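Field: COMPLEX_INPUT
Field: COMPONENT_COUNT = two
Field: RESIDUE_TOTAL = 537
Field: MODE = joint
Values follow.
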Amino acid sequence: MPEPCPEAGIPPSTELIEQMGRFNEQLAASGHLVQAAGLTPSATGARLVWSAGQPEPAVVDGPFAETKELVAGVWVLEGSSVEEIVELMRRAPNPQLRAGTIEIRPVAASL
Amino acid sequence: MSTHGAVEAVWRIESARVIAGLARMVRDVGLAEELAQDALVAALEQWPETGVPRNPGAWLMTTAKRRAVDLFRRNETLGRKLGELGRAQEQLGEGVLPDFDAILDDEHIEDDLLRLVFTACHPVLPMQGRVALTLRMLGGLSTDEIARAFLVKDSAVAQRIVRAKKALADAQVPFEVPVGEERMARLPAVLEVIYLIFNEGYSATRGDDWMRPALCADALRLGRVLAGLMPTEPEVHGLVALLEIQASRSAARTGPNGEPVLLLEQDRSRWDRLLIKRGLDALTRSEELAEGAYGPYSAQAAIAACHARALAPEDTDWTRIALLYEGLAQLTPSPVIELNRAVAVSMASGPAAGLALVDRLVDESALKNYHLLPSVRGDLLEKLGRHDEARAEFERAAEMTGNARERALLRDRAASCAQEAAGVQS
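Field: COMPLEX_OUTPUT
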């Protein structure tokens, strides 16, 4: 999804927050939204990294500057087809026309 | 992705709003649905050429609106009908047209959707008609999809829809949301439709077409939409809670060979925690709104919640479940509920207490062919060490059940009771 430069610690614009709120309300009103969550910058997070041959994972604190893509939010949605979800998510707000990706992945053994 | 798939997806998302908006203008849900269908046909013709428009909902609405205007200009009887319905219709033909531009404002859409819900689920319609109309007009399903989901012929569903539209027209059902006492009287008819759709999907087995289990998701979506439209009705949230919690068990309900797995034997790690959380939240809302007074759906949801909260079967609060069944039996008296209450009582207070309740049901004609009655009774007798009587009950239950796997299981239990009985005598 559109990424307001989290590594610089720049929060999303009020415009985006407002529009995203409205967008999520619409998803809820149409009965598609199960859950939505925005994520804080990777600086606040941590990773568990398993290396080959090592039984224990290493714990690495954020930020993760070396990553090309950072996940900024997740939605859990319910619909009858991938096309339906594509059609819903096409309408996700992106007021500053930033580059970004929304990836859609069906849940295994979904309802 | 094909444009065709995109058109279908748009239809699923937008059709209810389009039909609801049109129905407010033309005051006739049957006509509104036909106009919306015309717009869908136009989309299927044009979008592969032009691509999907930026605002597909508005495109469908505008197209349907144009068709409606043409129709009103051409069709005098329609104009007259509107006049009869008390609309300002001073002259026909080039006369006053409904204000179609008002359709596109979003302000009325929630009211319109709610009107559509109450119209599609109107008690003048037989249950099958209500279900078909609801799935078609509110769920955005095609006739073919509904037919596949309910294992009937396409033509049968088409006929149900035609008849239902005619019945609404004949009864002159107004396109409005009932208020006050009438709303309370009409709400159960709406909830029943959604619950029936869910159960149809829930009872589907693995061999069935995927359209059948998909009904669970359709019903859940309809329930969530309804909860948004009627946020202060406790029973709507109760129904949603019940559906969310039942849906949370989907993955655990069948074994590797498609055999049904009973609630207390399910692998609870396979229950969907997100749906359980949503269900418990919806139940809390319902309880707050009703100030602790349960209705039929919230009571069932509260029972389902007792199971959902128990991480292991032995953590189940059977005392509370028994009380909830007692309350449910007062709301909707039924021997099946009594039998469930007896099971809960036996879990809470021991097999003798449960058996006393079951024994009252033995002559109940409604349970005459219900294999769970002798099955439960056999189980309680076995726990009380009355093996010979238990054996007879298990054998009776085995005769009654239509499920081969279950029959084998009951015969096994009868055999082990016979062994026990022999052991006791020797």
